[in-house]
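--- STAGE predict ---
source: upstream dedup step, 1 unique chain passed
mode: sequence only
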Amino acid sequence: MNEQQRWANILSIGAMLMLEIFWAFVCLYTGAVRRLLPASVSVDVFYYVTSIFLAFFSFLLLHLLLRSRLRIPAGESKQREFLLELAVLALFALVGAVIFLYEKNIYYAGDEYMPWHGSARIEWLLLLGAALLLCQLFTRLKAVHWRREEKGGLWFLYGALAAVAGYAVYAPNTFQAFYNLYHANAYFNSVYRVLHLKPYHAINSGMYGFYGILVAPLVKLCGGTFQSFVAVMAVLTAACMLCYFYVLEHLTAKRSMRILGSIGIIAVTTAWGTNIHLQTYPSRLLFAGFTLAWIVGKEQLKENRKNAIMKRAGSLILLTLSLIWSLETGLGCVLAFVGSEIVKLLQRHSLGDRLFWKQAMWKVLWLLASFLGAYASVGLYNLAVSGSFISLSDFLFPFVGNPYVQALNLPMELFPSFWMLISVLIFLVIATVLLNTKLCGGKKEELSAVYLTACTILCAVQMVYYVNRSVRMNLFMLLPVLLLMVAGLTEYVGKQDIWNHDALGNGILRGTVACGVLVLVLTALLTCSNGLALEARREENRNLEPVYDWLSTLQEEVPRDTVGIGIGVPELYSYLGWDTGYYGIDIPDFLFAKEEAKNHVYELLNATDEIFIAEYALEFVTECADGKLEPFYATHELKNTYYFGAGTFLLYERTGNEGE
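--- STAGE serialize ---
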């Protein structure tokens, strides 16, 4: 790479970032764009999506312009190289420190899980420690090029870390806190429905996808209880983490980088929260890891006809399963796969090559094929359990024709925040990927650019959930893919073939490497420090002795298979092997259910002679009923009240006919 190309790259990235800052100011701070958009369109989502396209096209155009017209004098003094490096580090340190101090102001940040904000003294001590670490990296990375790859030797560590990450998810006692009951029921209800072989339709479409079809058989093999379900999710989490580590192995050359990255990756389950929130961790992590590992793994296979057939079949099956699991994360998986394939084509062909367009069209068809495969699979499941083929509107629920997404909206914070750094990382990786294609004069195939493409697309798609609802945990779920991107970008910048002996611009590159290594070190420290503290508290959620003690009381006083509705009820019935008789939408998401689903609950309550129901569920449903439950209250009487953990459960029985 000559000096003109190097500085075209650097200046194009700088100009792109300045343009992105201006666009963010126009969209988010001035209100000019907000006034032009329909009320139903979120300005945050609009800004975010347009910023991704702006990064792609602006960098491409700026690079093409500067590459042909830029004139750079040769040579650079060591003093100027030192100042460039210092400027990069100082800017990163300043921005990072400000964002760190503002972190506690993010919606629902959860101060109890951020002890580093316990006092101003602790905050400043941590910032001082990070600054000293950055200074250490500044002095140690003077000759930063990755000269050789250090292979193997870490799979024992990876196995141990995966086990730790999976064990953090294993917390089957949901009754310790109402938060746990609420979110566990929102997720387990769909699995319980499939365990009893009930079809999907308007009454019981799930909020988080059709994952029950995939996980319920495993849960059944393990006993069919809620504890079995959590155990299966824990094992899947461990498998998923191994997949992330496998990708990390192929993105980085240095063993030290792999160690730091792998320790940091598991922070997503170990260092955040003691509560049970399966629809975020690990649900949104699983197929992201599986898909990335497949994208990397298939490139390691030899090119022959047998392997080509296996790659196509395996890709279609995996992408179909990802969409069955969750339309939201599945879409990210499919786009990541298609995007990585197109970047691979752009490394081999120019845009003017007809072969590129022909092959690219076939790659795009993966999106349609996997969607049809997922839709057909859910429909066939329905037919197999004596239901009807699912309608398209029910399959797309709740993302089409439902107020769910709009109702969850929380605007992005406009003070310094981590989402801004993540956006910058996405923009930088987009530029890096483009530089490794023929669009920007790339001359060789770089598989690392293909892998980074998949990571970036996955990150960009999953970040939409945070952009629409800016809660810290929705940002934290991006951590595994983000660290892969940081490690991959740091590895690329540290490659020997983009460094020049006359040092022009090397200060910027070296400063970027130091920033990337610092992020990996700090995240690894987060895993070790906060993870150990939270693990002791998670043990409370693993003690099932109180649950089994209380189940014996329930078994004695509540008739078997009494109709049961509400938060915690399917979990309890799963241990007893009872049938709730209710397979509608989960109560935590009742507000966003279709009218047919709501009416089903009202009719069931009015018609049932005896019912076991969570107190919160009855209160919530009554508020939404608008008088439709008057027959229930007129004909039913409270027989008993049960208190267990954070839950209150009511047993009602019919005492007479309405009007008596």
